[in-house]
Design brief:
107 residues; alpha/beta; four-stranded mixed β-sheet; three-stranded antiparallel β-sheet; 2 helices; 7 strands
Length: 107
């Protein structure tokens, strides 16, 4: 699950350790989750949202939640069947400037 306050979570400890190890081994973390996973809290935190660079999801995430996520510096891609994705720019880059990561995402 994905929650602004609690971050990225899961219900199984084995998966948590594996996902945390994968996140430590890469330079960037992208989360792919449909809107049913947002705003829910699970048993264990994998990582705070601030450690995620981008999220790919569908149109069902509430706009206010998307604003809160981008305010944390996370880029959000809204996938739409048969259309180019909508890109929600992250509020700040790592150096504190506006990001311009609007490259096309092919789904």
């Amino acid at each position: 699950s994905v929650d602004v306050e609690h971050g990225v979570m899961d219900t199984h400890m084995r998966r948590i350790r594996r996902k945390q190890a994968m996140m430590q081994a890469v330079r960037q973390t992208f989360i792919v989750a449909d809107s049913s996973k947002f705003g829910k809290v699970s048993l264990f935190q994998i990582a705070p949202l601030s450690s995620v660079q981008a999220i790919v999801t569908d149109q069902g995430v509430p706009p206010d939640m998307l604003e809160q996520i981008t305010a944390l510096g996370v880029q959000v891609y809204i996938a739409r069947a048969g259309e180019a994705p909508e890109v929600r720019q992250a509020a700040t880059a790592q150096q504190g400037q506006q990001t311009d990561n609007s490259e096309e995402l092919h789904l």
